[in-house]
Amino acid sequence: MTFERMPLEVWFDEYQFEVDYDIGESGMKFFSIKELDIDLNDVDLRYGYHLGHPGLRAEIVKQYSGQTIDNVAVTTGASEANFSVIAHLVGPKDHIIVEHPTYPSLFQVPRSLGRDMSLFHLKWEDDFRPDMDALRKLVKPNTKLITLTHPGNPAGNVITTEELKEAIEIAETAGAYLMVDETYRDLMFENLPPLAATMSPIAISLTSMSKTWGVPGIRIGWAVADESIIQAIRAIREQITICNSSLGEAIAKEILLKKDKILSMLRKSMFSNYKILKEWMDSQDWLEWVEPKSGVVCAPKLKRGGSTDELCKLLVTKYRTFTVPGSAMELDGHFRLGFGGEQEELVKGLEQLGHALKEIHS
Question: How confident is the model at residue 90 (pLDDT cuts 50, 70, 90)?
Fold first, then answer.
């Protein structure tokens, strides 16, 4: 068993802090404590609860009908929940199906653990929509877990309620669990599907405060699932992180208490930025895309085809603008473009991207 670095995170380490304009980030622009108007003076800096503070879990579970706080595990970002669920459910002789493209840890964890894995490929020509017949064909007798990411990262693709129901039926028939990363769900443009964990005992919902809520620095995510899964996450956490940051949990709870007000503001910003991006993309001669239906990321590609490594490297080194090449997410030929930042940064970043495109095509 060998854990190797994820190319995406290597790229972030090398370049994200060396630029003036970031249009590669995958979430809303990060907040400061001052902007959120949160008082942390009374937070006790002690060890916390292994499954997360009960007050935070109680606030989270309000979103999940039919569930209780016993069905909630607060984790160090959604990544820890992802790792814990895979490590618990998928043994050395088991099989896992991972939708692709997606955030790389969802396929890097089973690889690092040496698990038998099949990628459920979403295709450009299908607008990155899931083909449930193709998913069904990937199931093996030893399939224990199917993972989906909707809304998608980096494509901004979505799943319908009927497709989600079919995915659950496929998992139930296989005697497997279905894990759905729903991190961008509150940023869907329209027609939110039900939360997966509310639809079946074999469905697991994952999410994070990082993307929609603009607070990746607090490192808070959670899983909602059958209590046996939650207890397994606790057992794994006790050997890795033990508990969450008391400050992070306090911030997360305060944001969720103001959820409707903050989300309204965030969605307004998202739609405003998306209008700017769409107008810019519509004017492009060198790029094409599948228009996202959610979130604040998309995955354009060069009309001429080929790698985007040269483009993204030129952007950071000469134009001091950050994007993510598709090669860092095993999506060669594309790049990740984020539009969740400040409007001025997005406009300037797109301008710089235009200069870089002109340079490599001239």
Answer: very high
- pLDDT tens, residue by residue, 230-243: 999 999 999 999 99
- For residue 316, pLDDT over 80 is answered with yes
CA distance 362 to 341: 30
Residue spans per domain, the chain: 7-26+260-361, 40-257
What integer is the mean pLDDT of 26-50?
93
Q: Does the model's pTM come out above 0.85?
A: yes
Tokens of 225: 């699932």
Taking the C-alpha atoms of residue 70 and residue 6, their distance in angstroms, rounded to an integer, is: 33
Residues in Cβ contact with 240 at an 8 Å cutoff, skipping those fewer than 6 apart = 80
Please state the separation of Cα 164 from the chain's center in Å. Answer: 17
Q: Which class does domain 7-26+260-361 fall in?
A: alpha beta
Cα separation, 286 vs 326, in Å, equals: 16
62-67: list long-range contacts, CB under 8 Å, 24+ apart: 63/195, 64/195, 64/197, 64/198, 64/205, 64/224, 65/198, 66/198, 67/197, 67/198, 67/224
CB 95 within 8 A of CB 117: yes
Mean pLDDT of the chain: 96
Which numeric CATH code is attached to 40-257? 3.40.640.10
| Confidence tier at 1 by pLDDT (50, 70, 90) | low
Cα 104 to Cα 329: distance, rounded to the nearest angstrom: 6
Q: What does residue 119 show for φ and ψ, rounded to 5 degrees?
A: -90, 130
Query: What does the pLDDT average to over 260-277?
Result: 96
Bridge-based pairing state of the strands 203-208 and 221-224:
antiparallel
Contacts of 282 (CB under 8 A, 6+ apart): none
